[in-house]
Amino acid sequence: MNTLILLTLFLTISGSLSKPSHHDHGGFTVDLIHRDSPLSPLYNPTYSLTDRLQNAFRRSMSRAFHLSKTSVFASKMEADIFGIPGEYIMNIQIGTPPVQVLGIADTGSDLTWAQCEPCKNCYKQVGPPLLVPTSSSTYHAQSCQSKACEALEDNHVSCDSQNICQYKMSYGDRSYSTGDLAMDTFWFGQTSFKHVVFGCGHDNNATFNENISGIIGLGGGPLSIINQLNPVIQGKFSYCLISQFNDTTSNQTSKIHFGDGVNISGPSVVSTPLVKKAPSTYYYVTLESVSVGIRDLSYKQSISKSGVNVEGNIIVDSGTTLTYLPRELYSDLAAGLANAIWGVTAQDPNGILEVCYKDLNLSRVPTVTFRFTGADVVIPTVNMFLEVEKGVSCLTIVPSDDLAIFGNLLQVNFMVGFDLVNQKVSFMPTDCTKCTSL
């Protein structure tokens, strides 16, 4: 689907959105609950920190595999599939009267969907109830000729005998959701929006926790929540992620803010252009190099024959825990760190991470900077190395032969702001534990 058609569909769909009933010109804020937080319905108190880290890393591998399969890169990556990947949960409501929906917040998906009655085939859900379309006075199924239906990619859409648009979303672990494309009222706290397009899933085979209703799509495509709310939030959203593997933050949540109202300005803010590429879901930026101390390591795979950087060579993703770099760049980074640290190497007990040290002294870790076009992002040392078991710390960056991903561990304690109108993403060092409402 070409850019002009996508733009037309986006303007048509977003133009049908009603202004929120409780409108705040500064936008609105929602909790981003990490799935391993004690505040999460997915939290398992019997898991040790090592267990939670191992599970998070395996989910990261699964997610990177899924994102690579749907990107322009031909995937060579193999991963043990570990359920539908995603790290943060959002609590919203859908319908009139509103019904609670607990969804995986996903910057790698566009369409929001939730399980609905009647259900031909549903995974077990014992948390929030399934949505019942006939119980919502504001529910409207979309026809096959609707603009919303046209916005779905050809391989994700079909038409039933009653002319109702059918969506189908599939994931890397053979999970899927199929059902009616519909519109209804969405509630974010006290703020409501009418005519939001979503998927009402009547046939779902997913490896979700039984407390999860579905997916909340925060990608860059026309049917994402971000673009559907554009008349109000003007294409802007930002989040501030706290560390979830630190006991001092166990009773706090990260925050995501939609619209204006977040002050991302000042001398510490850096911004880099977003690059439009297929699929439109992902937030592509251009990584030119990574520096270790004073040594600059170029992103060689992204340089064309003419010596110019190829744009959009990495995505910014809040749902992937680890950061993935091309193997050659990763090897140069690991060698640069080893030369500076001079530490005793160790093995990751889980066999996932490649660079680990015994009794690592973080003061010996050199400054590492991700040099995006126009934006040098200095990575805090505590974001780069995690203690995976007592006395063993491992680098949270891993090699990839496919899609490069700037993951959420490196984004901790940054205000990350997306502006889809001006096509840029900004980074500002921030103590996210103090962002009570953004």
Descriptive notes:
15% of the residues lie in helices and 33% in strands. It is an alpha+beta fold and 438 residues long. The strands form 5 sheets. Strands 2-3-10-4-9-8 form a 6-stranded mixed beta barrel. A hairpin with a 2-residue loop joins strand 21 (368-372) and strand 22 (375-379). The longest helix has 21 residues, at 49-69. It starts with a helix and ends in a 9-residue tail after the last strand.
Percent in helix: 10-25%
Count of discrete alpha- or pi-helical segments spanning 4 or more residues: 7
Strand order of the largest sheet: 2-3-10-4-9-8
Mean pLDDT: 85
Note the overall shape.
globular
Strand content: 25-35%
Q: Look at the helices and sheets and give the structural class.
A: alpha+beta
Largest sheet: 6 strands, mixed, barrel
Query: What's the end-to-end separation, in Å?
Result: 36 Å
Question: Which value, in Å, is the CA radius of gyration?
Answer: 21 Å
Number of strands: 28
- Low-confidence runs: 1-12, 72-84
Reconstruct the topology from this structure.
Elements: H1 3-15, E1 28-34, H2 49-69, E2 88-94, E3 99-106, E4 113-115, E5 140-141, H3 147-150, E6 157-159, E7 165-170, E8 176-188, E9 191-205, E10 214-217, H4 225-228, H5 230-233, E11 236-240, E12 254-258, E13 270-273, E14 284-285, E15 287-292, E16 295-298, E17 314-316, E18 323-326, H6 327-341, E19 344-346, E20 356-358, E21 368-372, E22 375-379, H7 381-384, E23 385-389, E24 392-395, E25 397-400, E26 405-406, E27 414-419, E28 424-429
Parallel strand pairs: 3-10, 4-9, 17-26, 18-25
Antiparallel strand pairs: 1-2, 1-12, 2-3, 2-8, 4-10, 5-8, 6-7, 7-8, 8-9, 11-12, 11-27, 13-28, 14-17, 15-16, 15-21, 19-20, 20-24, 21-22, 23-24, 27-28
